[in-house]
């Protein structure tokens, strides 16, 4: 019996069983489940939420912020880091802060960020080489972005363990605490407060150094500011840029805003990058023909080609099957099409980025692994005005780390269950051990 046949056979009043069935489909077999939705019920109204599965409809939802808002994020995020861009629609906060943060995260920095990510990954791989194995989630997936957070964002934290804890506690609560467990929330509030206290002190020091250029001659994380070469034209880290930029008094971007946005950089970067690296890597290693072609591009140092393998691989196990929106007023989605559906106000809408990237109406032969796809077929980093702030940084860090892994001789999956990603009953990878030659 298909998912929808099973769903329809459950009495309408049995909301719990209906919702449980949908949850099971989404979390244990998202490709099979959404394929059925795309073909039969592309806009699927369940008793608890609405699932949107086709490419144009996902884009429509994510383009209409006045109808589909991010209001649901505010109660989760505000108590931890204060009002931030992801929890506000196209209001003053998102409009202003995203613009400022985009100015700080300069595209010109990307080559050095990529180089740095490669060096960090290589060092980690060298360290584990004697054992012939590496645990990817922690040793590369989280380690590299935490180092980049220290090096490039200018937020190194008191130590690595604390940075991992802050990143995980906040992400667990903001995006994965589906039952609103108070313990998970308390851990997140505590992490947010500790982070703010730490950043407050660091901000004072950054301000005191106003105008001074930054040196990276010392080892990573042994000094707060360590990005770029020690020349007067060296790029400054993001925190220093924020701390030393003077905003006119009528531009409402004070110290508290700096702290919120610096916190966002850590929270946004660690667990997400780890998940993307782990899941894309597994997809490549599972396909020997793809692995050898990707390796060819890696050996030729052809990043443009190599990176396409990574984004295509991630499509087969994407970062998140969907993003969440609240429908603020009655709205007809996909008007004028056979699937046109009225979505009632107050519905929770799950716009499935993962499903959209398999929509045959837009993505040619979606079940094939192809590096010929245009970039606009991908929505790994969301769509519309909440598109990921870290898109470009992650756009170089994720492929570069995977490139360094694939360049190891004899890199391979470990046979059997030992070699699969272990989610340990959660929604994000906890462990993924791969092998390579010593
Ligand atoms: C340097 C690393 C990262 C940083 C600093 C970061 C930060 C952010 C921020 C601040 C937003 C909110 C943007 C807004 O509201 O306008 C966002 C959104 C988003 N990010 Fe990232 N992110 C990072 C990495 C990633 C990665 C690796 C992925 C997945 C591959 C990802 C996926 C997303 C998605 C899907 C959204 C849209 C959320 C929505 O529309 O509800 N991010 N990110």
Automatic annotation (TrEMBL):
Organism: Nostoc punctiforme FACHB-252
Protein name: Cytochrome P450
Alphabetized UniProt keyword annotations: Heme, Iron, Metal-binding, Monooxygenase, Oxidoreductase
Entries under PROSITE patterns matching the protein: CYTOCHROME_P450
Pfam families, A to Z: p450 (PF00067)
Family (UniProt): Belongs to the cytochrome P450 family.
């Amino acid at each position: 019996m298909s998912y929808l046949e099973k769903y329809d056979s459950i009495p309408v009043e049995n909301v719990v069983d209906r919702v449980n069935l949908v949850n099971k489909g989404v979390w244990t077999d998202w490709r099979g489940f959404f394929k059925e939705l795309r073909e039969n019920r592309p806009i699927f109204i369940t008793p608890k939420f609405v699932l949107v599965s086709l490419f144009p409809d996902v884009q429509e939802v994510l383009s209409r912020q006045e109808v589909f808002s991010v209001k649901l994020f505010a109660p989760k995020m505000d108590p931890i880091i204060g009002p931030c861009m992801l929890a506000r629609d196209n209001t003053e906060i998102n409009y202003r802060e995203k613009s400022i943060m985009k100015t700080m995260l300069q595209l010109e920095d990307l080559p050095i960020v990529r180089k740095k990510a490669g060096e960090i990954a290589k060092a980690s791989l060298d360290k584990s080489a004697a054992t012939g194995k590496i645990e990817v989630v922690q040793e590369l997936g989280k380690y590299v972005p935490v180092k980049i957070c220290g090096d490039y964002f200018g937020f190194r934290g008191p130590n690595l363990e604390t940075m991992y804890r802050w990143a995980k506690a906040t992400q667990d609560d903001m995006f994965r605490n589906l039952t609103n467990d108070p313990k998970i929330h308390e851990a997140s509030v505590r992490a947010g407060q500790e982070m703010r206290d730490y950043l407050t002190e660091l901000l004072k020091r950054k301000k005191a150094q106003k105008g001074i250029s930054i040196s990276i001659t010392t080892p990573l994380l042994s000094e707060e500011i360590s990005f770029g070469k020690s020349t007067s034209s060296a790029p400054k880290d993001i925190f220093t840029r924020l701390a030393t930029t003077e905003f006119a008094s009528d531009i409402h971007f004070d110290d508290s805003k700096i702290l919120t946005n610096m916190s966002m950089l850590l929270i946004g970067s660690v667990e997400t990058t780890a998940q993307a690296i782990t899941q894309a890597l597994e997809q490549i290693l599972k396909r020997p023909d793809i692995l050898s072609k990707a390796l060819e591009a890696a050996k030729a140092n052809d990043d443009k080609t190599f990176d396409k393998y990574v984004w295509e691989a991630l499509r087969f196990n994407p970062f998140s099957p969907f993003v969440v929106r609240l429908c603020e007023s009655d709205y007809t989605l996909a008007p004028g099409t056979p699937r046109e559906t009225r979505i009632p106000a107050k519905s929770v809408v799950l716009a499935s980025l993962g499903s959209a990237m398999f929509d045959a109406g837009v993505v040619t032969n979606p079940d094939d692994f192809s590096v010929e796809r245009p970039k606009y077929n991908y929505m790994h980093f969301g769509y519309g005005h909440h598109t990921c702030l870290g898109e470009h940084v992650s756009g170089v860090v994720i492929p570069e780390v995977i490139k360094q892994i694939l360049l190891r001789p004899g890199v391979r999956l470990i046979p059997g269950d030992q070699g699969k990603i272990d989610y340990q009953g959660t929604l994000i990878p906890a462990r993924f051990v791969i092998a390579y030659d010593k």
